[in-house]
Amino acid sequence: MTQTTEPPGAGVGGGEVVSFDLTSRPWICVLRRDGSQDELSLGQVFAQADDLRCVVGELATHEFSLVRLLLAVAHDALDGPGDIEDWTELWEDPDCFAPVQAYLEQQRERFDLLHPVTPFMQTAGLHTARDEVFSLNRIVADVPAGEPFFSTRMPDVERLSFAEAARWVVHVHAYDTSGIKSGVVGDDRVKSGKVYPLGTGWAGGLGGVFVEGGTLRETLLLNLVAADTEELAFSGDDRPAWRREPCGPGSDGRAATGLRDLYTWQSRRVLLHHDPDGVHGVVLGYGDPLASRNLHRSEPMTAWRRSPTQEKKLGQSPVYLPLEHDPGRSAWRGIAALLADRLEEGGGAEGPSRLRPRILEWVARLVTEGHLPRRFLVRARVAGVRYGTQQSVVDEVVDDRLEMPVVLLHGRDPAYAAQVIAAAEDADRAVRVLGDLAADLARATGSEQEGPKSAARAGGFDALDHGYRGWLSEMAEAPDPFEHRQTWQRQVRQAVGRLGDRLIAAAGDSAWEGRMHTDNRGSTHWLNAGLADVWFRGRLARALGDPDAPGSADSGAKATTSADGGPPGPEPTGPPGTEHAVTEPEVHV
After folding, report:
1. How confident is the prediction along the chain (589 residues), in pLDDT tens digits per residue?
2. How far apart, in whole angstroms, are the C-alpha atoms of residue 300 and residue 225?
3. Which among 482, 499, 501 has a CA at the least distance from the CA of 548?
4. Rounded Cα–Cα distance for residues 210 and 203 (Å)
5. Right CATH number for 415-554 from 3.30.1050.10, 2.40.110.10, 1.10.132.100, 3.40.50.1000?
6. Residue pair 529/412 in contact by the 8 Å Cβ criterion
7. CA-based nearest residue to 528, from 503, 511, 547, 506
8. Beta bridge partners of 112
C-alpha cells in the first residue's frame, strides 16, 4: 500500500489527459482460425468474429467474463433477438453484427477506460479516507494472496498495460474474492475504515457454462438467447452497466433486471490509478451484493440445485442455488448436470432437484425446433473458481471443455442423452471397482488402503478421459445410441481390465502370499492377490454386464462393490446381461 498525493479521482500522473478507448484500442485476446493469437478492440472482435476461433485469457475465468461482456454488447446493440425467428435471421446473416459498430460509436464515451467522469466499469473519484492506492495484486487473480510461490509475477504486480488492466477490471467484477476490504468514502457500510465480507463477485458463485461453436461468431449467436424463451424472464428495463448511471460508492441495494445486467453486474467499486505509460495502482471496494437464490430465471450460464437448507430457513419451496463445479471432477463425469432434462428429474409439483443450465435449454430448443442440424457439434465450455479460507483467496480455477453433438439436447428424443449419462455412470462404477481392487491388494499386504485406492481411481478416470470424449463426439454419427453405449462398455472393460492387470502384477510377493483379514461383517478370509483378482473380475462384470448381450445397455445399474474388503453378498438379480457375471467365492476360516 502506498500514499498518493494525487487529488481524489485524478488517476493520471503529471496532469496529462490520457484516454484508452476500448471500442477502438486492442485489448481482448483472441485465437484466430489459423491458430495465431491476436489482440483486438471491441469493434474489431465483432467485425472479425467469423475469422476468430475464440476469446482467450490468462485464466478460463477471463474467457467466461469476457464472453459475457460481448454478449451484453450484442444483446443491447441488437435489442434482441426478440424471438426464435429473429435469431434464425441472425444465424443466416453473415453480417449479423453490423449494427454493433454504430452502437459502440454511440456508447464510446462509456467505454473509455480512463475517462475522468465515467471510466469503464469504474467509479470516478473513488478513494479511502486516507487516499490510499493499493497494489494491483488486488485485482490480478493469478497472484495468490500471501503465497505467490507459483506466480510469474512474484512478489508483486507493479504495473499493467492499459489493455491488460481493462481485462482485469472486467474479471474483478465477476470473480473477486470476499473478505475484509478497505472502506471508501461515501459507502455507508464502512466500519472503522473497513467493509466486512459481502461475498465474491457474481460469477464466482456460479458453475459457469457457455456454448462454444466453431467460430466466435457461432459462439456469440449460440449464447444469444431469444426473449421468447419460457425458462427465462426478460425485462424491458434490462440494461448493461454502461447504459446505467455511473455507480457511486456503496450500493443502492437494487435487484438485477435481466441478462444484460447480470453479465455486467457491478459487484465491486474500482478505480485504476495510472500515468501515461500504464496502470500502477488501484482502489477496490465492495459494490452491489446479489443473493443468488432463485435467480434461475435470470442467470442462464450455470446449473441449479435445490437447497433443502435454504428452504427450511426461508420457509419456502423450492429454493434453487447455483451448482458450482468440483475442481476434482472432469466435465464429462458431471455430464448429467448438463444434459438431464428438467422434466425427467422428478421432484413432484415443487420442481426437480436440479436444473440444467438455461443456456443449454436454449440450445435444446434450437435443435428440437429444427434450427440446428442434429449432427451439429458444440462444446460446453466450463469455467469456475473454488475459493478457500472463507472465500478470501482463490484455491483452484476450473477449466474444461466437452464437445458433444446437439442431438444430446433434443427435447423430443431423450434416448441419446440418457445413454450418454449412463455411459458416464458405467465409467464411474468401473473405476470404483478398480479402486476396490487396489484396496484389496493393500489389505493383502497389511498396508494402508486409502492412498492406493485413491491413486487407482484417479488413474482410472485419467485412462478413460480421452476415450469418453472421443466416444461422445462420435455419438452424432451413431444410428443407435444403445449400441453405441455397448461399444463404450467394451472399451471400459478393456481399459479398466488392463489397469487391474497392472495393479496385480505390481502387487509383489507379499500380496500373493496374503494374510488373514476380517471384514466389517465379522467374516474372516485368507486374502491374497489371487482372490482379489477373482473379486475384481466379478465386480467388473456386474458393473458393466455383458455388452454383447441383448438389452445390456441397461445393465450395470445394480452393480455392487465391496466397501469393506469382504466378498459381496449373493449375486443380484439384474436385467439381461448380468446372468454371466462372476460370483466371488467366499473363503471362510
Report:
1. 444 434 344 444 334 558 999 999 999 999 999 999 999 999 999 999 999 999 999 999 999 999 999 999 999 999 999 999 999 999 999 999 999 999 999 999 999 999 999 999 999 999 999 999 999 999 998 644 445 444 455 567 899 999 999 999 999 999 999 999 999 999 999 999 999 999 999 999 999 999 999 999 999 999 999 999 999 999 999 999 999 999 999 998 899 999 999 999 999 999 999 999 999 999 999 999 999 999 999 999 999 999 999 999 999 999 999 999 999 899 999 999 898 754 444 445 577 889 999 999 999 999 999 999 988 888 999 999 999 999 999 999 999 999 999 999 887 888 999 999 999 999 999 999 999 999 999 999 999 999 999 999 999 999 999 999 999 999 989 999 999 999 999 999 999 999 999 999 999 999 999 999 887 788 887 999 999 999 999 999 999 987 666 555 555 554 444 444 444 443 333 333 333 333 343 333 2
2. 9
3. 482
4. 12
5. 1.10.132.100
6. no
7. 511
8. 21
The answer to whether the beta carbons of residues 130 and 25 sit under 8 Å apart is no
Reading the block at residue 552, the C-alpha cell is 445390456
Distance CA 56, CA 35 (A): 12
Can you tell me the distance from the alpha carbon of 279 to that of 139, in angstroms, rounded to the nearest whole number?
A: 12
State the Cα–Cα distance between residues 547 and 188, nearest whole angstrom. Answer: 66
User: What is the rounded distance in angstroms from the CA atom of residue 300 to the CA atom of residue 406?
Assistant: 18
DSSP single-letter state for residue 243: G
Local structure of residue 12 (DSSP, 8 states): B
Helices 450-474 and 481-505, interaxial angle, to 10°?
150
Domain boundaries, the chain: 415-554
